[in-house]
Amino acid sequence: MTQTNQRILVVDDETPIRRYLRAALTAQGFTVYEASDGNEALQAVLSHRPDMVILDLGLPDIDGIEVTKRLREWSQTPIIILSVHEAENDKIAALDAGADDYLTKPFGTGELLARMRVVQRRQITNADEPVFQAGALKMDISRRLVTLDGEEIALTPTEYDLLKTLITHAGKVITHRQLLKMVWGEGYDDMHILRVNISNLRRKIEPDAARPTYLVTEAGVGYRLRVNS
Amino acid sequence: MQRPDPDELLKNLHAETHSRGKLKIFLGYAAGVGKTYAMLQAAHQRREQGIDLVVGYIETHKRKETEELAQGLEVLPRKQVEYRGATLPEMDVDAVLARDPKIVLVDEFAHTNAPGSRHPKRYQDVQEILDAGIDVYTTLNIQHLESLNDVVAQVTGVVVKETVPDSVIDQAAEIEVIDLPPDELVTRLKEGKVYIPEQASRAIEKFFRKGNLTALREMALRRAAERVDNQMRAYMQTRAIPGPWAATERLLVCVSPSPLSERLVRTTRRLSEELNAEWFALYVETSQATSMSEAKRERVSKILQLAEDLGARAHTVTSSSSMESVSQTVMDFARKNNVTKIVAGKPLRPRWQEILRGSLVDQLIHKSVDIDVYVVASADIPSLPADENPFKLHSPLIKYAWSVFLVALATVPGFLIGGRLEPTNLIMVYLLAVVIAAIYLGRGPAILASLLGVLAFDYLFIIPYSSFEVSDTQYIITFIALFFVGVVISQLAARASEQAETARQREAETAELYDLSRDLASSADMESILKQFRKHLEQTFNRTIVVLLSNENRLEVKTNSDSLNLSAEEIAVADWVYRHAEPAGRFTNTLPAAELRYLPLKTARGVVGVLGAGKPSESNLDLTPAQRRLMEAFANQGAQAIERALLEEQTQKISLLQSAEKLQNALLNSVSHDLRTPLVSITGALTALDEDEVSLDEASRNALVENARDEAERLNRLVGNLLNMTRIESGAVKLKMEPCDAQDLFGTAIEQLGRRASQRQININVPADFPLVQMDFTLMVQVMVNLLENALKYSPEDASIDISASVADSKARFHIADRGVGIPSDDLARVFDKLYRAQLPEGVPGTGLGLSISKSLVETHGGTIRALNRAGGGAIFEVELPLGI
């Protein structure tokens, strides 16, 4: 799984974190560039054209949300946000502004690499794959068919749309707002209906609904369809 | 060897060292003797000595020499007070206080300030400046001295309206007499050095006659001499030089609404001065006072005020209205206060009335065994004003009509059975009518009834009939007896009812005070104390009430009557009262332009606040002395209750602070320990992997890394808990309430616990129809993580943990149950205390923060959390959250 020629820009004002990321990512064959604040980051994206940006939210000059917004004005470079546990609202804001995923500090190297892979894969094969498989769960979009261990599962249209949306973004976190918008359409703001449908979907597709394998809750942020790695 | 009297020493020491400023008075006997000039000269001398000196107010009267002398001194700007379209220049007291010099010059001590100023009189401004520790130089003419006011009027025929209380002069540290022979003064006057020429000639005619000037000069010099004498005595006392001074005299002057009283007060003042004696002014308020006219009451309070200004201690005591009881009250007061001499006025009533009704002076003389009684003559005192007409009816007319009717009724049985009875028996029926009239109708109607009775009896039943002639002289005695019985009984009945009235009033006052103190005592906190205090004041005095307390040295309205809103000016008046601990506002001498009357709420430790009383709802009158006293008693009670509440609040705050400090220390110890422990494992693992010499097999390496990772996770959770605790305690936690799925809640919590939870058997039981619950998902996950971590920690590895959700009493109830050791039943409530940790033999890690934070978070949600012991062993933690919305 060693990747070559991939350029990664690491933006964090803490030198130890940059040092750790440089060591971990270089070992994986990435080329690592560093920036210690928002303005430097925007400059570095222009000059180094990285394939991915790992961006800390708490920066000394412009905060990470603003950096994300400015970057998205002209660049589709994937962005992974780094944030602390307490700052759920910042994470949501950054994701809604166009960041691709997030990691809560402290995180493990494995976790980071997995997130990077998901984002990378989506970048390469953005086209809809007609068939998706995660463990025993299988979805054939062309036939509108969902099976668990080969057995067909009857889903309501909303549940189907919900699962489809999660599957097309498999591995990536989707905020509540994004989900509502993608499944129910613009202007829908009813958390209740989302929770109920997620709960029902889990009962149908999860072996143990209380300890979900596929449909994972990202507390305070949204949901993620877990792809096994 | 006679030792100095310690009290005297202390008094002098006090006068010397107290930080109050010193007053120096340049005393003259008339305008133009050169007081201001002398004061300015002294000022220049001080300035040359390098003393910080400013001019607060100076009146040069356009006199050239004076104006020249005033130059070169720092002059503070005057305050322009607007009054009826004109601007009147006044001294700016605040500017003086702000400038804070060592000495300030204030001309014309007796000046009356423009209406709307802080104090009505300039000498009161000076008092405030002295209180601030600033020395004052001032000028004064002798005729402005209060105690000499009447003498000056007698000698010169000019009544001086601007007067200064003698007590203020007595406080002066220095008095310098500016003397000029009268001839020279007249010459100066004629030269136009004092007034402009046309004014001067008028002044010479009216006031500056040589006789007048000489008399005034004598008064000034004598006054100064008296003072020197006093100083001499004081000196001798401190040095214990035996001197010929008499034992301390104490004087008492009895005052009444009578116009003579003012003179009595002034006379007593002079007497006390000569005897160097302390003196009291006493007003005996009788039950008749309730029916006393407003003007009379006003006069009494003015006279008492005058007495206080002249240095007396003014007192009001109550008694019933009989002469006997009034004199007894005076004597009681005199004996209680060790009075040696009583001053009373010569009766104004005609001699025959005095013989008939007796006089207070006679009574006093009769009762005073060892006390001297001075009777002061009245020269030409104006007769009593019209409203005190002695022929005024004592009772309403209807009562007189009733007494006529009673006599008519008494005549009826005489007609019916007249022939068969002796006339002497018939008189008994009339006597009955008189007695009834005396008891129920009052003095006047009773006298009328006895007169009419005598006449009717004579006219109808005494031979010759139908005429007022009397043939038998023995009936004269009957008539006289009937008349006297009527008068005596009516007197007795009137006195009894008056006494009853007084007693009733006193009882009512006592009852009101008792009610207040009971309600104040039963009030637990400041708010209810203030509410009760205000309620009682409103009810008793029928006035709007406001109570202000100090908050960080600023007065704030704490409770007020609905219709009352204090303007900034009113609050400034209240503030003055708070700082000076003296009453001010309406009907007082300080800031009388205010709407309300303000009383300081004083306790032994100082002023706790200010009470303001507004106008009564029906009239615009001042409080009666009795009401004033009662209000002061109320204020005392209130102040004590408020102080009690304040002290309680303080004690609570302190004990809270102490326990917080204790907790903080314990927390710090615990946290620093718990932060280091994981770091030990992590550092240990890293160094072991780092060092080449140590060869580790694959299994050991994995074990080390795994342990370090677990410890890092634990450290992260600990930091998270600490952060949450800080946020909860600072009130920074804002809930993001959303409908949430309970199953999702448990799942996410288990997920967050990571490997530790995945190795254990955890059963989740959420009914399929379990509703969504309103909560902040992230924070509630935190609660569940803490509860689960707790369950994992305190139960054996192989035991399962059971999570369940149910609905009970329209609440969502979550149970996290383990099969651990359980909790000692005594500790069930304490487990949520910060730093509480169940006693376990082997060191279970943790700060004891988790449960306490969980409790705070659940309670922020409006829910409850409690610990139970599980049947069959282990503990249950139960969280209940409100359902609905």
Give an overview in words.
- The complex is a heterodimer of chains A (229) and B (885).
- Chain A has 229 residues and is α/β, with parallel strands linked by helices.
- Chain A has 2 domains: 7-124, Rossmann fold, CATH 3.40.50.2300; 131-225, Winged helix-like DNA-binding domain superfamily/Winged helix DNA-binding domain (Arc Repressor Mutant, subunit A, Orthogonal Bundle).
- Chain A is built from 8 helices and 12 strands.
- In chain A, the strands form 3 sheets. In chain A, strands 2-1-3-4-5 form a 5-stranded parallel beta sheet, with helices on both faces. In chain A, strands 6-7-8-9 form a 4-stranded antiparallel beta sheet, covered by helices on one side.
- In chain A, helix 2 (38-48) runs parallel beside helix 3 and helix 6 packs across helix 8.
- Chain A is globular.
- The mean pLDDT of chain A is 86.
- With 885 residues, chain B is α/β, with parallel strands linked by helices.
- Chain B folds into 5 domains: 6-238, 3-Layer(aba) Sandwich (Rossmann fold), CATH 3.40.50.300; 250-349 and 356-379, Rossmann fold, CATH 3.40.50; 397-498, no CATH class; 523-654, Beta-Lactamase (2-Layer Sandwich), CATH 3.30.450.40; 730-882, Heat Shock Protein 90.
- Chain B contains 27 helices and 25 strands.
- In chain B, strands 3-2-6-7-1-8 form a 6-stranded parallel beta sheet, with helices on both faces. A 5-stranded parallel beta sheet of chain B has the order 11-10-9-12-13, sandwiched between helices.
- The radius of gyration of chain B is 44 Å and the shape is flat.
- The termini of chain B are far apart.
- In chain B, 34% of the residues are buried.
- The A-B interface holds A 85-86, 88, 106, 108, 191-192, 195-196, 198-199, 202-203, 209-212, 216-217, 219-220 and B 709, 712, 716, 720, 723, 727, 736, 738-741, 743-744, 746-748, 750-752, 762, 764, 766, 768, 772, 777-778, 781.
